Protein 1
Amino acid sequence: MNKAILSVLGHDRPGIVAAVTGILFDLNCNIENVSQTILQTEFSGSFIVTMPQDLTWDDLNERFLEILTPMGLHVHIEPLLKKEAAITARQSEPFVITTKGPDRRGLVAGISEVIATHGVNITNLQAVFKGGNKPGDNIMIYEVDIPIDIDQQALYRELREKAKSLTLAISIQHRNIFETINRI
């Protein structure tokens, strides 16, 4: 089976998900994964789909351009190829790292650099910057997979040091604890 990854970007409005999924349904594609969000006023969606054997890349792209271009949306489609794993899968535990503090350049770069240095994978990142100096208004939430075979205390120490240097408050919790505490 052919698999594709589709990225759709543009100014948010009602009906975008319906348009994209309607096209995929009409072309007999199966949606396997979706990640969609609104970033300020902009729609951002990624879809992994399985395509029928008789559907060409050109036909898929043409149909998306025909429907989405008039909506002011941009689509990028490319084949999802099986790739050799860049790193050997390591056993890991899911954690949530939350930072709060005044907005300024380099916050995500500083924290993500420490995370990467320890071989930790960021699986989801949400950052809401409203500007200003009210720490509660600027929040970053990193969902990460921390390998069980690393020095976790060194990771925590370096994250706290980096957060302090960036004037950020930081919290590091196992995802199960985070979800339990933040349940509505």
Note: Residues 152-165 form the longest helix (14 residues).
Protein 2
Amino acid sequence: MIADPTGPPTTDGQPGDDTPSRKAAGPLAGVTVVDFTQVYMGPCCTQMLGDFGATVIKIERPGSGDLSRTAIPDPDGFDNPIFLSINRNKKSVVVDVRRDEGKDVLRRLVASADVVVSNFRQGVMDRLGFGYDAARALNPRIIWVSGTGFGEQGPFRHKGGQDVLAQAYTGLMWRRQSDDLPLSVYPTTFCDYTTGMHLVQGVLLALLARERDGEGQRVDVSMFDSMLHLQMQEACMQMNRGFEVNWARMPLCGVFPTLDGAVSIVGAFKENPLRDICQALGIPDLSLDGRFATPEDQMTHRTELQQIFAARFAGESTEHWIGKLEAEDILCAPVWTMEHALAHEQTSTNGMLTTMRHPAVGTVRCLSAPIHMGRTPARVYAPPPMLGEHTDGVLESIGYSPGEVGELRDAGVLG
């Protein structure tokens, strides 16, 4: 069954000693969020808010809903795993925002809410009639949060934002382990996720400020800014020394195939890490070799050095080398598949797996929130909503009668 807000979370475990009966309501209980977001950046933000107790009302378009409902072909259609992964603890309201009657519904919602979150291109919320000035006129305490690709000003303000474009525009895609490797797309949408977490931070900071002075405010976050900020060390070095930092090119770091997999090593934070790596590999101390005597020498002769490492790693199993490296206190890890990582005891011990009972697709397994709080933990209150599942209930909660809801549905305003 779906967890009740007053009961234990439907998770496979959470760290901490507090019993469910002693856990307080979520820290965001009582906060209402009107959620215009879709795809990934915005929904991962609003799911995090919902996980910690906020009431999240997801606004979806008639007939199709959030674009992620149809992002991939899947037997479960609108309720596919991509959508389910980032939309739990939300209520789905289907309303045609182009219709005057639909705008009236949204005005009532915004007037009674604490937070509005969107991730459209610059200007879209204004054209819909729910930009910051319009929202503030309805509700002076509103916290209006916008996630865009490039920001509200500047030459790219009208461009659509997307994870791969952010990788390309901000230097992330250009930096790679070796110049002879082709430029490529990073296989996980970490730009969307990082920006979504910055949106969460913006919401929380604005709520804290409002608690102190009673005033709402506008919060703007862009994927472009988030990805530049992700590279703050590299950017500071570039601007002040004209030097490109590339952690993947550090001579004592790398990924090396073994007989049955691969090992990743990080030779750092030690007086002479090269000596200790050589000890683990059972080869002569290369730090005594003039080619590799200093970090600068090691960088100059990085290819030769890593060829020596690679030849040695290839001769034994991953487990063998992990044991040898850990014995010398070298930072190392086997290269796992996601399937292996999800099945490992550490994942379940950390409380990172949760199950939900969805009315259409049955039991759904997915990841929990990564923030573990002893007294007010993240919880799964409800599975991701079916399209329009909560339209009637939400409208009645803001003053519409059942008859009025029926009339709006008959008129095609509601889905």
Note: Residues 1-22 have pLDDT under 50 and may be disordered.
Protein 3
Amino acid sequence: MSIIKRRYKFLTVLSMFILCLIISIYIYACYDKDNRIDEITTGNIEEPAKLAEDNTVIPEEDNILVVYFKDEEETDEPKEIITVAEANRQTFVNSEGIQYFVDATLVIPKIGLNYPVLSETSDKLLEHNLNKFWGPKPNTVGNYVIVGHNYNNKTYFGKLDQLKNGDIIELTDVNGKTVKYKVYDMYYVDPSNRDCTSQLTDGKREVTLITCNATGSQRLVVKTTEVV
């Protein structure tokens, strides 16, 4: 066999080998692509992390934004005011036999407010002082919600509408620790709207103050966050 024929045969075999190799690579690529499409459509890939959910669950019977505020037909004066000095770490029992204690003390220098915050809330307790409505312990991570009447004589939360963004409030717990918070938002909501009680604070300490407007038709919400 001549040298030319042998070279021709070699090149022919080499060409066929290369062609087979290219065809094999193409078939494998198609197969791999189909597999990856199947994984996506059947969900066999890692799912993205879910967003945090608010676990705030307020019983319907505690619908304080609807019923536990001063009624215009009631007296314009508080029936009794428990002072900070009287309330310091004392336990009380109201006329209904409910036992409660002072959870914290709220001070708002701009409007001259200085009241204890009672640990429980009811229409009766709101006649005597500010009440904790929802949230964690005072000055801990979460949204500590305080409610109070808007009396015409400007006691309790009667001057709350005078605050503005940037104003400071101070919350002192029963251990004597005081944390300052800054107002960052103020708005009115319908009585049935309780979104302001959400505990999604992104790991921050917040205090929310709530009272009614002059007619009782809406609720004034003051949002504050810890000064850091």
Note: The longest strand covers residues 178-189.
Protein 4
Amino acid sequence: MTVFNLRAYDDHENVVFCRDKESGLSAIIGVHSTALGPAVGGCRMWEYNSDESALVDVLRLSRGMSYKNALAGLKMGGGKSVIIGNSKTQKSEALFEAFGRFIDNLNGQYYTAEDVGINPADMAIVNRSTQFVLGLEGKSGDPSPLTAYGVYLGMKSAVKHRLNRDSLEGLKIAVQGLGHVGYYLCEHLKNEGAELIVTDINQESVDRVVENLGATAVDKDEIYGQQVDVYAPCALGATLNDLTIPQLNCSVIAGAANNQLAEDKHGEILKKKNILYTPDYVINAGGIINVSMELEGSTYDKQIACEKVSAISDTLTEIFQAAETEEKTTNVVADELARKRIAEASR
């Protein structure tokens, strides 16, 4: 397995392979860029089918964090980490303490936080071994509510641009993935009167949304073909691919998942289908904006965090308009703008 020849490798500054035999830790840390500041990005725990798939994921995710932080106007670079393992059966204090020691060895080049499969309690254990942890309880806390809030606002911007509607009331919205962020998003959508069609690989998560929010559940493979106004991917990445895109029957894609496009070419395919794609790392930046307040050294204030998250709408509107004017896809416009900001900071 080579790192430098992988398509996902994008001149990353640092890639660290972490192994602790005693605790069973196998992890990878990817630092994409520190041009704008220390690299910041969450840690996810997932049972990858191979070490290479874990590496590709961390490379794509860390690059996405660089772009996300740049377009959110944050003085932070991009990084990400993955722990290879089953988050339901393989967590231990020793594992997270060992992971913290690897984080600490980077001396502040990378700050970690929670992501898929990780919770604030896990990060508190990591914090025993290193100070370079964000999103802890008592500080900015769980970033999921602000991530969902940003996705909700971004979805409204996309609906306004494509459907010329100020409200989501009466719209049919398909939500794939009902974890922390997905559930909070569904709450926002229900409160505005949207009709929810949902799915998740976890039946308990599905039952919760159906019971509490009156959603309609469908099989995980049926979510793509639903006739809806908005499709909101909020699970893992690469769900917009050669197999799923032909099934889509929506006008807007706006969701919380990272790396939603399996390849850049899929942005062009969506454009040809007249589906407005909302760049994932722009719309889902609410959580990192929330966490960033810890690095700024100011006292955490949720109201101020929400005000900062609301700027996501303006950024998306700028991207939508530029994509139309320049006859480009929204993902290309977003990438170009992010790279420009990083390059300017590097100079």
Note: The two ends are 33 Å apart (CA to CA).
